[in-house]
Amino acid sequence: MTIVDILQPVLGALMTAIATIFSFRAGRRKSNAEAKGEEAKAKSTELENTEKAIEIWRKMAEEMAQRHTEDYEKLYKQNEELIKQNKELLLKIDHLESELSQLKKG
Q: What is the pTM of this model?
């Protein structure tokens, strides 16, 4: 056996080991990059979903505020009308009491 016969399998194994190490490192880098890309994509999707939810809640709040403003104005007008009717009825009561008092005297 010559030195070449001994070194050839050792060098072949060494070259295979070196190639495997470089392939492993390249694969790991690619996996890490893909994982970071997926994480960024997930965060982006989460932000988009949060923005959509905020928009839905904002729209609902605006609609509720508008509806409550309209309800308040409607109730305010009804209250004003009831106050007016109440005053008119009080005046009629006073007038009827006055007539009753005169009828009792006369």
A: 0.46
